[in-house]
Amino acid sequence: MIIRYFLTVLLLFSLSISSNAQEKPILYIYTYDSFSSEWGAGPKLKKRFEKKCNCTLKWVSTASSISALRKIQLEGDKSKADILLGLDSSIISKGELSGLFENHEIDTKSLKVPNDWRSDIFLPFDFGYFAFVYNKEKLKNPPSSFLELAQMDKDFKIIIQDPRSSTVGFGLMLWLKAAYDEDSNQVWADISPHILTITRSWGEAYNLFLKDEADMVLSYSTSPAYHLIAEDDDKFQAANFNEGHYLQVEVAGILKNSVNKKLARKFLDFLISDEAQAIITTSNWMYPVKNIDLPKGFENLISPKNTLLINANLIENNSQKWIDEMFEAIK
Amino acid sequence: MEFNSRKIFGIFIALSTGLLVVTIFFVLLIQAPPSNFVVNNDILTLVGKSAFQAFLSVIFSLFFGIIISWSFNRLNFFGRSLLVGLFAAAIVTPALVIGLGLINVWGRSGFINYMLEYFGLRPIGSIFGLHGIILAHTILSGAFVATILLARLNAIPSRALKIGQSLDLNAWKRFLVLDWPAISGALPALGSIIFLLSFTSFPIVLLLGAGPANQTLEVAIFSAVRLDFDLNSAVQLALIQLIICFTIILPSIFYLPNTIVAGMTHRQKWHDSKSIIIVQAIILSVGSLIFLSPLLSVLYDGLGQNLIELILKTSFWNSFFTSFIIGVLSALLCLTLALALSFAQVEIQNKYGKAALYLPIFAFMIVPAVVLSLGLFILIRDLGISSTIAAPFVLIIANALLALPFCVAILLPPIQAANIRYSKITKSLRLSGLRRFKSIEWPLLGHEIGLVLALAFCFSLGDLGIISLFGTDDFATLPWLMMRAIGAYRNNDAGSIGAVMLVLALLVFWLLPKITKRFSNAKT
Question: Which residue in B112, B473, B481 has the most chain A C-beta atoms within 10 A of its own C-beta, making it the best mutation to test that interface?
Fold first, then answer.
């Protein structure tokens, strides 16, 4: 009896997922988890966009943006994806190489992205800088460079993420590469005694940091804005490094396979509208790509002395080697 | 050979599971272009380290599991069954929750250092490193061992106890003569399972691992799939993992001693000397502190003001019910499979045959979650089924299969014992199939069946691996919601979700065995 009841529930349940028998077109946007979650920008963007598009927007999320790309690749011709949102500037080559995307054809003149970052295929929708975040009340004199970090007291600990599983961890590897090139492995070796642990994801690392397990955590220069605005807590700050900070641009792209390309372009237009940009700024906690008024609190964030960026193709061709070298250096 | 439905059903399940594993590898290999994969020194070092870590985890888990179950068996006190439930809940709490709870207690700013500082003492060393990993694994697995062995000890017939008492056995002699034969049958399977769990442990090793020195093969596989989309390497690494794990656990699969003692679980009377009782009380107090403090810290963190806000959200209830329904169905399926496999194990006399029945379910457990998820995803795609429709079914089946080795480890010893004790009666009465189950096994297995249901339910509750490719926004489970919260700065919400999962696991472990036991006793 019970089994039959549950099976019925389950069947109805899966049917309700699949048979959205409406006339409205459905726009499928694949993205990473935290973007589309309850707490992210996704639900708010969906609400606003659906008001004007006469369509239904469906978020399909995976653990990370790159898993979303892999999912689309695996689904092949049958994929319903119209847009992939959330790949970042250091891994866009993987998107380009997949051959799955077409040019976005959106006018990007009004966009303000550091280093004048542009791509025909991928439209930037926010950006940020990798930075080490610390608690001002506990750490009075944060290091102001990787070299200073290396010379900190023996007990000074940082938490970083695995470059193989986290874009933030990947970003740190590129950051050091961009700043020190050939010498980056030596710098890795010098800072390695201070690495408390290397987590799988940004969230775990940040969680540990908030539990006060380490003095600094690898995150974004905009992270303090979250605490300031959402929690009214001003004790967190990012350390401004003399080497400059590595740039991460998050992008969205339209799939060649999409059956709703017009709608998809409409969404991308919406994505860089002032309205959507404001939502992204305080939900995804990154900088907007347009010149909109920043929410109060953003003025307290550090501005990098220098923006670091490595060409995406160079990254694609060398990342495995660099990752191996990095792990060798901190062994 | 005479027709034996129990044998055939068990063999069928083992074959199907084996076929599924083979198919998963097969579809991945077809999908994958050949790659220039080589087994280099790094991989061998990784394997060596993982094996060493897993070996230590097994030793510690078994040791603490044995002494804790021994103490539980002898002492009777108020709140005992709740405490037993708390121990059992450890294994099924998502590993990440345990890891974070452990840090609440042992971390730099954890409870212990807080106390030490209060008394002006020096803080303890870092929890990060091999010792942290092994501590976490011991808490996860040792508690599971204790739960299973306790059920075995509780099943020692009172007759045997009376004789033992009249012979004036001291604590050590009693352990050797009465306890060891009761528990030893369960140890090889338990050791194998813990080895596999620890060898393939992923979240804990990364969280507490203190860097690249403590990585596992799973991380390498994860990276091959995720970053490079190099399915071929991933499959090869997964095969290496499979081969190594099998080589190591194979002897224990062949060595499956029969459990000699059997009976219904019951409260027992045994008079130990005062000093032994004090030792048991100390073991339980210290054990409870070490094992339960991380769990309690999770509850403390999560059951605050924040919880109220959380349970007002529809997304929470959606995830809750999805997790719940999947958990229930997965538990029922797992119980059926575990019973069938255990029955077949008992029927088959040949030890190679016995081992062959075990291999597929262990194989399924060893396949890394990311490979499993990918393989199932491609399989579903190739079958032409929409992944959103297939998602609940895949989750139910995969989770049931993942819990299967644990559940067989729980069920097999009592079923073996029942078989030895009642085989003559069943033969002479020509009892078979359901009638045999109803009249012989069900009354004996009431408690264990509840335990199996609880375990399988919670296993499915904590799953994060399989859902990764199948989840959509209409279909999310509690752990998934938790990861999303962690990924969006909402650590308080994540803490509350973790606490809810823990409470659910606790309730299930505390109540289900009681319920099934009552039902089974009512039937007799």
Answer: B473
Burial B219-249 (b: 16+ CB within 10 A, else e): bbbbbbbbbbbbbbbbbbbbebbbebbbebb
Residue B169 one-letter amino acid: L
Show Cβ contacts of residue B173 under 8 Å, excluding neighbours closer than 6 positions: none
Query: What is the SS3 assignment for A26?
Result: strand
Are B325 and A9 an interchain contact pair (Cβ–Cβ within 8 Å)? yes
- The one-letter amino acid code at B47 reads V
- Indicate the CATH number of B5-32+39-523 among 3.20.20.450, 3.40.50.10750, 2.40.50.140, 1.10.3720.10: 1.10.3720.10
Across the interface, do B315 and A13 touch by the CB < 8 Å criterion? no
Domain encompassing residue A199: 128-247+299-330
Write out pLDDT tens, residues B444-461.
Answer: 778 888 888 988 888 888
The answer to whether residue A222 is domain-embedded is yes
pLDDT in tens, chain B (524 residues): 445 777 888 888 888 888 998 898 888 888 776 666 666 667 777 788 888 888 999 999 999 999 999 998 888 888 887 788 788 777 667 777 888 888 889 888 888 888 888 888 888 878 888 888 899 889 888 888 898 888 888 888 878 888 888 888 888 888 888 888 888 878 888 888 888 888 877 777 777 876 665 566 777 777 777 666 778 888 888 888 888 888 877 777 666 555 555 555 566 677 778 888 899 999 999 988 888 888 888 888 888 777 888 888 888 888 888 888 988 999 999 999 998 888 888 887 777 777 788 788 888 888 887 788 888 888 888 888 877 788 888 888 888 888 888 888 888 888 877 777 777 777 777 766 677 777 777 777 788 888 889 888 888 887 766 666 776 666 778 888 888 888 888 888 888 888 888 888 888 888 888 888 888 775 44
Strand A83-88 and strand A236-239: the pairing is unpaired
Measure in Å the smallest separation between the Cα of A305 and chain B Cα atoms. Answer: 27
Chain B partners within 8 Å of A157 (Cβ):
108
State the nearest Cα–Cα gap between A170 and chain B, in angstroms: 10
Quickly list H helices, B227-311. Answer: 231-254, 274-302, 305-311
CB contacts of A185 in chain B (<8 Å) are none
Residues near B24 by Cβ (< 8 Å), separated by ≥ 6? B367, B371, B372, B375, B376, B379
- Are B487 and A37 in contact (CB < 8 Å)? yes
Over residues B340-371, the pLDDT tens digits come to 888 888 887 777 777 788 788 888 888 887 78
| Cα–Cα distance, B354 to B423 (Å, whole number) | 19
Query: CB A330 to CB B490 under 8 A?
Result: no
Nearest-by-CA chain B residue for A219: B489
CATH of residue A179's domain is 3.40.190.10
Q: Give strand pairing partners of B85.
A: none
Chain A partners within 8 Å of B329 (Cβ): 3, 6-7, 10
Is there a contact between A162 and B210 if contact means CB atoms under 8 Å apart? no
- For residue A52, is it within any domain? yes
ipTM, 2 dp: 0.81
What is the distance in angstroms between the Cα of A173 and the nearest Cα belonging to chain B? 14
Residues of chain A with Cβ-Cβ distance to B386 below 8 Å are 18
Does residue A318 share a domain with residue A201? Answer: yes
Co-location of A116 and A178 in the same domain: no
Q: Does A10 touch chain B (CB under 8 A)?
A: yes
* Residue numbers of A between 177 and 236 with CB closer than 8 Å to B: 192, 195-204, 206-208, 210-214, 223, 226, 230
- Is there a single domain that holds both residue A222 and residue A137? yes
The gap from C-alpha A146 to its chain's centroid, in whole angstroms, comes to 23
Return d(Cα A287, Cα B352) in angstroms, integer.
Answer: 63
Nearest to B226 among A17, A34, A67 (CB): A67
Find residues 73-112 of chain A whose CB sits inside 8 Å of chain B.
73-76, 78, 94
Residue to mutate among A160, A208, A228, A279, with most B CBs inside 10 A, is A208
> What pTM value is reported for the model?
0.84
Q: What 3-state DSSP class applies to A44?
A: helix
